[in-house]
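Sample intake sheet
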Amino acid sequence: ADILDDPSWTKTHSDTVAAAVLDWAVDRGANTYCHWFQPMAASGVRHGQTGQVQNMMMKFNRSTNDVEFDFDGKMLVKGETDGSSYPNGGLRATHQAGGYLALDTSSPIFLRGDTVFIPSAFVSYYGAALDEKTPLLRSNAAISKHGKRLLAHLGLDIGDQEVVSNIGLEQEFFLVPRDQYYRRPDLQLAGRTIIGKDAPRGQEMCDHYMAPPSLANPALACMQEMQDECWRLGIPLKTRHREVAPNQYEFAPLYGLNTTQIDQNLMVMQIIEEVAVRHGMAALLQEKPFNDVNGSGKHNNWSLATEDGIMMLHPGKINAATGNPSAFAVIMSAIIAAVNEHGDLMRMAISSPGNDFRLGACEAPPAIVSTYLGDDMTFYLSHFKDGKGEGEYVPQTKMLDLGTHEVLPFEVPAEDRNRTSPFPYGGARFEFRAVGSSQNVSMVNTVLNTIVAEKFAEFADAVDAGKDVHDLARETLNENWRVIFNGNNYDEEVQQELTDRGIWRIDSGVEAIAQLTAEKNVDLFQKMKVLTKEECESRQHILHDHYTGTVDIEAKCLVDMINQHIIPSVKAAGVGPLSDLEASVGTLKAAIAEIHAAEDSYKAAQLARVLRLETMVDIRAICDAAEEVVPANLWTLATYKELLFLDSHTSVAPENETTFYDE
């Protein structure tokens, strides 16, 4: 264990560690290993969102033909693969196909089945990041370097320790009957229903959220097996419950280091999809698989701490550790400035294709990037910035008395939750609520780390130059105060007020992606040594292509569903908008052709967004009108009624019933 504490073991003790890994693997029946990496633009399309080449840890002895083990330090710490078929956005030419894999010492190796998985970074021959992990690791270095500098100015020298970014990820998803899933080409190929008339019942009765899991359908047993498999891999899925929409569920783990949590979340999503099949269901991880019911998110709870556990966003702990009663206020002022200045990058980081339909829909915060602090915190920081006091912030509590003998009065926080804010402070952490459920959240956390690291660096530089850190924090708060908002972000009048304040608002995900190459953002990433200008440009190109490709799949699915299902059903029934349906096929094909002919990836993505959010929405209305009048026995596509209600449409076979421990 002492060897692994220092990442330099990859140079000095790699053979020793490899021998231990081999013994551990063989003891557990494994004989294969892979370097496990994260290609870009994988959400919604690539199973597991990772890449891997699985190699056996054995070979034949050339002299004796006996089987012997074949795994050493060199094989453990580095790999090479063909990088030619992964999105690269121009970072490598066709004839420069090398992709190089290097073990990530911050994330544990794990074993599943017969295979050892080695979390790895993935780069080109020239060191350009071809993956999601490498920029995250660079941003971790930036937040540590400049976080340590700021802490030193606040009175805490942590020596050789690092400042680390911890996160906790809440994973939402849907489960639907697999036999009905097979009757929906759009769910199978695009991950969401691109047509579908609402069922008579949805979520309007508020009857699904945290309702008891039913033993009458397979969902509970499925989730139990998902949890069991995750725990066996060292992934602590702590919480499970029903979510707001029918057939919607959530898992939440214990928090931890961001690289580990992201690696584990990718495996959680893969396990969710694979285990669901064994229970006769399909898992849907896309952000908005169904119309007019809530979509799914992945709340990203983000915090900072020293390696020995001093939480930098916990007022009492950081103030005590620094001996500075205003340390917390200084750190908060830097974060508030980062959100105000770089809200465009935060919006870019959540621009997954599925979030088109989710942001601002009373299920996720709108695309206006403000932060909620609560009245007590806002009052405290207001007094601090106005020079009315530098005392320690002490979170208030209150007592709730229910007026009963059986339930005694109990203490609760003085601040309520604000689920309408995209980035609320929640006590020792910020919760980025607008993140999409299907996302690899590496870019999300790369952005959070980088924008805050920049502000920490600016503070440290100013203090190095003779500025008083408390005066600097007050000035920073006064300059960036507009980004704080504690009210209802769903209120349209409020949204206009926030827009008028000049807070970052980018309604279009396509336009948000384009901010990645804005001059200030390229300068930021280069200055913090997180992304080069070329890497920013490549990522923007890849993200736009990913958006366009997603819409292309959806539009082609819609063409097939109209031609192969809806038109034949309408003809068989002799009712429905036949001529409108036939015309819509031509409209879709023309729009697809225009996208394919676009001059560049940005223009193609802009055209794709119009097709998706305007043209296809109008055509959906025509298809749904047909579903409304065609008799059920002639409608060949699975309906929302058949897809969304496990409790009333499925049952557990007797042989699959839960066995209780006392039996």
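Comment: The first strand starts at residue 32 and ends at 36. The chain has a mean pLDDT of 94.
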